[in-house]
Design a protein that fits this description.
The complex is a heterodimer of chains A (484) and B (151). With 484 residues, chain A is of the alpha+beta class. Chain A is built from 9 helices and 12 strands. Chain A is 57% helix and 17% strand. In chain A, α2 (10-65) runs antiparallel to α4 (148-200), α4 runs parallel beside α5 and α7 crosses α8. Chain B contains 6 helices and 5 strands, in the order βαβαβαβαβαα. Chain B is globular, with a radius of gyration of 14 Å. The chains are: A alpha+beta (484), B alpha/beta (151). Chain A: This is histidine kinase.
Chain lengths: 484, 151
């Protein structure tokens, strides 16, 4: 039952509740009135009959003593005028019927004995009263009265009461409808408004509010909440707009900086190289054309000048590659890393020294990334492995890969001189070198470039080594190649 | 040696001297004409240069064109050479000191015959010049300028 209640509309609930309570009240009032009326009427009837019986008994006492039947019958007959009297009988001392009310169909006089019931018996009220004369019982008087009048009375009462009840109920229905409108209408409107706001996300809608009662306050509070939401929305939109403007401005600043950087590195590559080439070229020309006029010291100086210019050219090249991997746009694709490493190893062997070399490249390594950039990175790592193992009796370069969660880790390992782990911080920083130029040549840009490439792939690089025991570089790239 | 000349368009005086020296060591008898910027080169090729009239075009066998030139860039000179029927047959070798991938692609798109990066090592540069001169002047064949006009 409770379950069904819950699905009723608020309107219905209110109406039902009002009507049910009122109907119950009216019914209770009517029922109690009827009950009280009934009781009163019975009491009244009882006392009336007793009075009548008392009078009759007094009048008929003498006639009974003298057995004056005529007198008795005339006394009894006088009762005919009273409608409610059903029967009246007079008994002598022996209990014989002396006279009775004739002309009444129910007119059998009951025999007087212990079995005679008095009081209300069914539809009938019965009364037996002793007739006394000078405190001596001379006979008995029996009266019986039907309750038809009472019933008629009650019936009238009930119909009047139910008539009034019906009128009150109808009036109540109207009242309840009004009441329901007063109470439920604002709530319904509020809920409609809430629904519309939720559906259209239109926070400019307001619920209609009337009155200052609890419902009015509810409506006002609701509207205030909606206003707050509207304001917050506006603020969010405004801040989003301003963020977008900031991002736009930053983006254009960045792209301008990028273009400037590009122009810068373009001119660096042209303009810085040109004088170097002149230094080197005229050095060579000097040596070739005027070499006879130079002594050994002069020739040595000349050699140093030319070597320095070649080194500087290498530095410029390295910086150009570094700037290129920093600004180039990425084109991610699936790359056969094993094949790429084989190609790099081949190139290195072509230009390399006479150290016997063993290369172990795990076949079937695949990564996702920009192939040009990754080639630059692995060229650097492999070239490092080559360079720093050039003083070994036999060079061993290994490349392995393994899966580490969402990363693929590629390890490039050599058996060269390694580096001191104390300086690991400086390893991936441009122009920082862990070896002197007389030990191993280099620009100090290679690993910075590798680091930049790996970072642009949202990956990571780490290195471990022990002096004289070789070095191991581990590049971690995201498996799917997604941006982070 | 049939005396085909080489036009070198190079703005840097040092590079001019070095290039001429390298080319001379490759082919002593080939005249080397040097122009300092793109505009000068175009004027020379299309006969607007009063000092050196366009008859030189007949004997021209190779143009060595620096990518980066003042006023009119090397690539624009190349475009000019390729857009005229008088000059579009000329072998043009682009020479650069940097290996900008964009330059390389654009040069070939505009019809360069070759593209080389000047080596920082002068010995290697000389080798490059020797190879170029030997190939373009002696191995390769070009039409006569007079023949070009009659077609």
């Amino acid at each position: 039952m409770m379950g069904r209640w819950r699905y009723w509309r608020l309107k219905t609930k209110l109406l039902f509740l009002t009507l049910f309570t009122s109907a119950l009240g009216i019914t209770l009032v009517c029922a109690s009135l009827i009950f009280v009326e009934n009781q009163n009427y019975r009491k009244q009837l009882e006392s009336e009959l007793h009075v009548i019986a008392g009078i009759l008994a007094e009048q008929s006492a003498a006639a009974l003593v003298f057995e004056d039947n005529e007198q008795l019958s005339s006394i009894i007959t006088s009762l005919k005028r009273i409608d409610t009297i059903r029967q009246a009988c007079v008994y002598n001392q022996q209990g014989d019927v002396m006279t009775s009310l004739s002309g009444r169909p129910q007119g059998q006089c009951p025999s007087v004995g212990s079995s005679l019931e008095v009081g209300f018996v069914g539809d009938v009220y019965q009364l037996l009263m002793p007739v006394t004369l000078d405190n001596e019982v001379v006979g008995q008087l029996f009266l019986s009265s039907h309750l038809e009048v009472l019933r008629g009375h009650i019936r009238t009462f009930v119909s009047v009461a139910s008539g009034i009840g019906a009128v009150i109920l109808i009036a109540l229905v109207f009242l309840a409808l009004r009441l329901q409108r007063i109470v439920s209408e604002p709530i319904l409107k509020l809920s409609e408004t809430a629904e519309r706001i939720a559906q259209d996300h239109d926070y400019s809608i307001r619920a209609p509010v009337s009155g200052t009662d609890e419902l009015g306050r509810l409506g006002n509070t609701f509207n205030e909440m909606i206003s707050t939401i509207q304001q917050q929305n506006r603020r969010i939109l405004e801040s989003r707009d301003s963020l977008e403007r900031i991002v736009e401005a930053r983006t254009s600043e960045l792209s301008m900086a990028n273009r400037e950087l590009e122009a810068f590195s373009y001119s660096v590559s042209h303009d810085l190289r040109q004088p170097l080439r002149a230094v080197e070229g005229f050095g060579q020309a000097l040596e070739e054309d005027c070499g006879d006029q130079l002594n050994e010291i002069g020739k040595d100086y000349l050699k140093r000048i030319r070597a320095a210019s070649v080194r500087m050219a290498g530095l410029i090249d390295g910086l150009l590659v570094l700037s290129r991997v920093s600004r180039q746009s990425m084109e991610n694709q699936t790359i056969d890393l094993s094949q790429m490493l084989e190609e790099i190893a081949e190139e290195l062997q072509d230009i390399s020294d006479d150290v016997p070399t063993e290369i172990l490249i795990q076949p079937g390594m695949w990564v996702v990334g920009d192939s040009r950039m990754l080639r630059v990175a692995f060229q650097n790592l492999m070239a490092n492995a080559w360079k720093y193992s050039a003083k070994e009796e036999k060079r061993i370069v290994e490349v392995l890969s393994r899966r580490e969660g969402r990363w693929v880790a590629i390890e490039v390992r050599d058996n060269g001189v390694g580096f001191d782990m104390r300086y690991i911080d400086k390893l991936f920083v441009a122009f920082n070198r862990l070896h002197t130029p007389s030990e191993f040549g280099g620009t100090g840009i290679g690993l910075a470039t590798v680091y930049r490439v790996v970072r642009r792939h949202h990956g990571d690089i780490s290195a471990t080594s022990q002096l004289g025991e070789g070095a191991s570089f581990v590049v971690k790239l995201p498996v799917s190649g997604d941006q982070g | 040696m049939d005396g085909h000349s080489i036009l070198v368009v190079e703005d840097n005086p040092d590079d001019q001297v070095l290039a001429v020296r390298a080319l001379k060591s490759a082919s002593e008898n080939s005249p080397v004409i040097v122009k300092e910027d793109g505009q000068e080169a175009l004027d020379f090729l299309f006969g607007n240069d009063a000092r050196q009239p366009c008859k030189d075009l007949d004997s021209l066998g190779l143009v060595l064109l620096d990518v980066k030139l003042p006023k009119v860039s090397g690539l624009e000179v190349l475009k000019g050479i390729r857009s005229s029927p008088l000059t579009n047959w000329l072998p043009v070798v682009m020479v650069t000191s940097s290996d900008e991938p964009a330059d390389l692609l654009n040069a070939y798109r505009l019809g360069a015959n070759s593209f080389i990066t000047k080596s920082i090592n002068y010995r290697e540069f000389t080798e490059q010049m020797k190879l170029l001169a030997r190939y373009w002047l002696f191995v390769n064949k070009v039409p006569k300028a007079g023949a070009v006009r009659s077609f």
